[in-house]
């Protein structure tokens, strides 16, 4: 009710009272004369004023606050908790208005809290790292979260309100739900999903929802993506298998030749020398393998203590070049280096030397006689780039990413001949990454390869 209406209603009362007094006057005054008439008129006037004052008082203190209260309760019923009523500093209705305002304030706070709690729950559920589905005791889906939809790739309207077995195809999930209902206990299953064309391993955990009086009210299904865990597990298995395999070959060979020597071959000078040479070579291999493994495990445990400093490339490189020239002469491969003058790198000189040497040794090993190997060091905008280039056997496209894995070799037999363990590039990658750099390879089969290491100037 607006202000105008309120004043109007007060005027209505006034008009009513004035008319009543006027009528009384009309009826009573003709029956009186003289002083009596004056007295009656005067009394009527006094009475009229008193009644008006009383009415005004009643109107202000009762009618107006009650009307305002009715308006406020109307708004509260509609759910508008922002309304407040005006509280007069005195008067009978003061308490009513105060209490009403308090009620409105409490309701408003409760509404805000409820809203916040609701949105908090929603935020938590939607931002969980695992998919979630809530199924009631009759099997109807009540809730799915964002991660679930990401995994299964549909809209929530495709699930909510439907029976779980109508909207989930995988029988393993049905089994988890049924067993959770049956045993009223946590149940675990596993499924595979293809998410954006990648295969993902998902662990499905079903947990019963039980209310205060221990009645089963439904099931919560949680979907954990365990693809990375599986990968790590697989890598661990591969690693153990690879190490055993790598060790088995030289050990078998050492044992075989030692037995042959003991069986009488050691009496023949020529055989003795030949077999002992093989035994030495094989044991050197084992030693190299063990050393590389130790090195790698040290790097992976992040024990790699880099002793970093500013490396002046001009002072750091000659050592590497001398070693490489010897290597080049041995295998009659042309080697040349193209190093920009005056460069400096921030890093661990010994570790970075290991990187360059490993890459260069590979380049020599996987390039036939008469080939070419080169080393370039260039200044780029944000990086110092080290390029090791050869025109050797090259790397097939499908192997390009894998060569940085431990033990991965494109051609096992060939690499083993060069004494390789397949750990060199894994170590190189670790060191480069510890320097916050990147390594990549460009290669064409039978044309050659270029390994590019980029080390940031600032990090
Ligand atoms: N420059 C290159 N040209 C062609 N293939 C290469 C080159 N560098 C590496 N590879 C391939 O990548 C594989 C992995 O290299 P990596 O250096 O890790 O192992 P490795 O050379 O076999 O043994 P090592 O641990 O002794 O270095 C090699 O076996 C080889 O097949
Ligand atoms: Mg190597």
Automatic annotation (TrEMBL):
<keyword id="KW-0472">Membrane</keyword>
<dbReference type="GO" id="GO:0005886">
    <property type="term" value="C:plasma membrane"/>
</dbReference>
<keyword id="KW-0547">Nucleotide-binding</keyword>
<dbReference type="GO" id="GO:0004721">
    <property type="term" value="F:phosphoprotein phosphatase activity"/>
</dbReference>
<dbReference type="InterPro" id="IPR050351">
    <property type="entry name" value="BphY/WalK/GraS-like"/>
</dbReference>
<feature type="transmembrane region" description="Helical">
    <location>
        <begin position="12"/>
        <end position="32"/>
    </location>
</feature>
<feature type="domain" description="HAMP">
    <location>
        <begin position="60"/>
        <end position="112"/>
    </location>
</feature>
<keyword id="KW-0597">Phosphoprotein</keyword>
<dbReference type="Pfam" id="PF00512">
    <property type="entry name" value="HisKA"/>
</dbReference>
<keyword id="KW-0067">ATP-binding</keyword>
<dbReference type="InterPro" id="IPR036890">
    <property type="entry name" value="HATPase_C_sf"/>
</dbReference>
<keyword id="KW-1003">Cell membrane</keyword>
<dbReference type="InterPro" id="IPR036097">
    <property type="entry name" value="HisK_dim/P_sf"/>
</dbReference>
<keyword id="KW-0812">Transmembrane</keyword>
<dbReference type="InterPro" id="IPR003661">
    <property type="entry name" value="HisK_dim/P_dom"/>
</dbReference>
<keyword id="KW-1133">Transmembrane helix</keyword>
<dbReference type="InterPro" id="IPR005467">
    <property type="entry name" value="His_kinase_dom"/>
</dbReference>
<feature type="domain" description="Histidine kinase">
    <location>
        <begin position="242"/>
        <end position="459"/>
    </location>
</feature>
<dbReference type="InterPro" id="IPR013767">
    <property type="entry name" value="PAS_fold"/>
</dbReference>
<dbReference type="InterPro" id="IPR003594">
    <property type="entry name" value="HATPase_dom"/>
</dbReference>
<keyword id="KW-0418">Kinase</keyword>
<dbReference type="GO" id="GO:0005524">
    <property type="term" value="F:ATP binding"/>
</dbReference>
<dbReference type="InterPro" id="IPR035965">
    <property type="entry name" value="PAS-like_dom_sf"/>
</dbReference>
<dbReference type="GO" id="GO:0045121">
    <property type="term" value="C:membrane raft"/>
</dbReference>
<dbReference type="InterPro" id="IPR000014">
    <property type="entry name" value="PAS"/>
</dbReference>
<dbReference type="InterPro" id="IPR003660">
    <property type="entry name" value="HAMP_dom"/>
</dbReference>
<dbReference type="GO" id="GO:0000155">
    <property type="term" value="F:phosphorelay sensor kinase activity"/>
</dbReference>
<dbReference type="GO" id="GO:0006355">
    <property type="term" value="P:regulation of DNA-templated transcription"/>
</dbReference>
<protein>
    <recommendedName>
        <fullName>histidine kinase</fullName>
        <ecNumber>2.7.13.3</ecNumber>
    </recommendedName>
</protein>
<keyword id="KW-0902">Two-component regulatory system</keyword>
<keyword id="KW-0808">Transferase</keyword>
<dbReference type="InterPro" id="IPR004358">
    <property type="entry name" value="Sig_transdc_His_kin-like_C"/>
</dbReference>
<dbReference type="Pfam" id="PF00989">
    <property type="entry name" value="PAS"/>
</dbReference>
<feature type="domain" description="PAS">
    <location>
        <begin position="117"/>
        <end position="161"/>
    </location>
</feature>
<dbReference type="GO" id="GO:0016036">
    <property type="term" value="P:cellular response to phosphate starvation"/>
</dbReference>
<feature type="transmembrane region" description="Helical">
    <location>
        <begin position="38"/>
        <end position="59"/>
    </location>
</feature>
<dbReference type="Pfam" id="PF02518">
    <property type="entry name" value="HATPase_c"/>
</dbReference>
């Amino acid at each position: 009710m607006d202000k105008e209406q309120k004043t109007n209603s007060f005027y209505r009362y006034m008009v009513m009272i004035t008319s009543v007094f006027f009528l009384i006057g009309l009826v009573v005054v003709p029956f009186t004369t003289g002083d009596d008439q004056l007295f009656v008129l005067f009394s009527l006037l006094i009475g009229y004023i008193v009644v008006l004052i009383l009415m005004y008082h009643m109107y202000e203190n009762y009618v107006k606050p009650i009307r305002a209260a009715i308006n406020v309760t109307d708004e509260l019923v509609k759910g508008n908790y922002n309304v407040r009523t005006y509280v007069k500093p005195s008067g009978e209705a003061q308490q009513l208005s105060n209490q009403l305002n308090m009620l409105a304030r409490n309701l408003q706070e409760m509404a805000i809290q409820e809203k916040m709690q609701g949105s908090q729950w929603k935020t938590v559920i939607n931002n969980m790292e695992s998919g979630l589905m809530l199924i009631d005791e009759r099997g109807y889906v009540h809730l799915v979260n964002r991660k679930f939809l990401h995994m299964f790739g549909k809209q929530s309207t495709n699930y909510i309100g439907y029976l779980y077995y109508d909207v989930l195809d995988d029988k393993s999930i049905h089994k988890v739900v049924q067993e959770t209902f049956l045993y009223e206990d946590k149940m675990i299953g596993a499924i595979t999903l293809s998410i954006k064309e990648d295969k993902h391993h998902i662990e499905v955990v079903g947990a019963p929802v039980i209310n205060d009086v221990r009645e089963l009210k439904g099931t919560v299904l949680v979907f954990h993506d365990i693809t990375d865990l599986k990968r790590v597990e697989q890598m661990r298995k591969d690693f153990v298998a690879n190490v055993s395999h790598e060790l088995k070959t030289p050990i078998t060979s050492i044992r075989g030749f030692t037995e042959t020597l003991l069986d009488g071959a050691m009496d023949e000078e020529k055989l003795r020398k030949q077999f002992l040479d093989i035994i030495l070579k094989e044991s050197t291999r084992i030693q190299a393998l063990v050393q590389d493994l130790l090195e790698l495990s040290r790097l992976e445990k992040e024990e790699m203590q880099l002793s970093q400093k500013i490396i002046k490339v001009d002072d750091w490189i000659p050592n590497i070049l001398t070693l490489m020239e010897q290597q080049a002469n041995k295998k009659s491969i042309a080697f040349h280096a193209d190093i920009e003058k005056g460069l400096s790198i921030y890093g661990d000189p010994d570790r970075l030397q290991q990187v360059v040497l490993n890459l260069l040794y590979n380049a020599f090993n996987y390039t036939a006689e008469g080939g070419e190997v080169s080393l370039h060091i260039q200044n780029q905008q944000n990086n110092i780039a080290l390029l090791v280039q050869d025109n050797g056997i090259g790397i097939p496209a499908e192997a390009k990413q894998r060569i940085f894995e431990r033990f991965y070799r494109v051609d096992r037999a060939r690499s083993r001949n060069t004494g390789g363990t397949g750990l060199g590039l894994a170590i190189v990658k670790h060191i480069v990454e510890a320097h916050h750099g990147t390594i990549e390879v460009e290669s064409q089969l039978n044309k050659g390869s270029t390994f590019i290491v980029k080390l940031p100037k600032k990090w």
